[in-house]
Amino acid sequence: MNELMKLDPEDVKSVSTSAKGWYTEIPKGEGATTPPVYYNGHIFFSTYIKSEDICSVGKSRIYVLNATTGKGAWSGGKKYVELEGVKVSGIVISEGRVYAGVTDYPQVDAELPEELGEGVEIQSGLLAFDVPEEVANWDSAYPSGVMVPSYWRRWIP
Questions:
Q1: Cα–Cα distance between 1 and 121 in angstroms, integer?
Q2: What are the residues facing 101 on neighbouring strands?
Q3: CB 44: neighbour CB atoms within 10 A?
Q4: What sign has the CA pseudo-torsion 53, 121, 96, 13?
Q5: Which of 61, 65, 87, 144 has a CA-to-CA distance to 35 between 20 and 30 Å?
Q6: Phi and psi torsions of 73, nearest 5°
Q7: Residue 23's closest CA among 77, 60, 67, 74?
Q8: CA dihedral defined by 27, 103, 90, 78, rounded to 10 degrees?
């Protein structure tokens, strides 16, 4: 029987070694805005949460999860960072840098989390930052440039 382990978005402390996989549920009201991107043993994707106030802009979350364990890769084991006042519409990763296409609403001062690094800003609809330290330092079982099969059984945006 295929046994999957459910990981709560806030639970990053333990992972079952007997599980044949893992999954995490996105909270109600939060919707995926990008497909998952696999980079150096980790999965990157973004979601958006609408504001309950129709006159306000919502917030995005950029998730980074270890593809093997499902644990968060942001500092302190966090699964995501939040960006107030922007909507992420695409993610590309190249040579240790994340490039995220964003809709920046001029009526809102976007709040960028400190985990993205110092001096990071949105310019012409693009947010660029270094991958989290855990991702950059990940000791993969496969040498760089070797293709390995990775897939997700179900992705419901």
A1: 48
A2: 90, 126
A3: 23
A4: negative
A5: 144
A6: -110, 0
A7: 67
A8: -40
Cα separation, 74 vs 24, whole angstroms: 16
The token pair at 13 is: 């402390």
- pLDDT tens digits, residue range 48-65? 999 888 888 889 999 999
Cα Rg of the chain (Å, integer):
16
Whole-number Å distance between alpha carbons of 107 and 67: 37
Distance from C-alpha of 95 to C-alpha of 40, rounded to nearest angstrom: 10
Whose structure tokens read 């107030």?
A: 84
Q: β-strand 5-7 against 22-24: which pairing, if any? A: parallel
The phi and psi torsions of 106 (rounded to 5 degrees) equal -65, -25
Report pLDDT digits (tens) over 117-131: 888 888 889 999 999
Q: How many helices (H) and strands (E) does the chain have?
A: 1, 11
Gap between the Cα atoms of 8 and 5, Å rounded = 10
Residue type at 152 in one-letter notation: W
Q: What is the pTM of this model?
A: 0.79
Question: Six-digit token pair at 69?
Answer: 């364990």
Let me know: does 74 contact 81? Beta carbons within 8 Å. Answer: yes
